[in-house]
């Protein structure tokens, strides 16, 4: 593309302007490619970090579930022992035995 001020006598400055425009366009295209590359790399790092956070939360939730189950088992075992102690302290009577089991059932 030539400008109206370019004449055959002034061809050298017009070519320099065209070369400068071409170089500018190339530099701009390179900058845009690099910017897109930076954005893509940032997205990739963010996805990886997001996955790491999700996995960490999942592992923590599983660990908490195991702790809760273990605490529940301990509580049930303690209640069973308590119930057995109460049964053994009482004389063997069907009604007393049934009442104790009923109370244990409500506690569980």
Q: What are the key terms here?
A:
mainly alpha; 2 helices; 86% helix; rod-shaped
Helix content: over 70%
Question: What order do the helices and strands follow?
Answer: HH
Please summarize the sheet with the most strands. Answer: none
CA radius of gyration is 41 Å
Distance between the termini: 89 Å
How would you summarize the topology of this molecule?
Elements: H1 11-89, H2 94-107
Helix pairs in contact: 1-2
Summarize the structure.
This protein has one domain (9-107). It is built from two helices and no strands. The protein has helices at 11-89, 94-107.
Description:
- The protein is mainly alpha-helical.
- The protein has one domain (9-107).
- The chain is 86% helix and 0% strand.
- It contains two helices and no strands.
- It has helices spanning 11-89, 94-107.
- α1 runs antiparallel to α2 (94-107).
- The protein is rod-shaped.
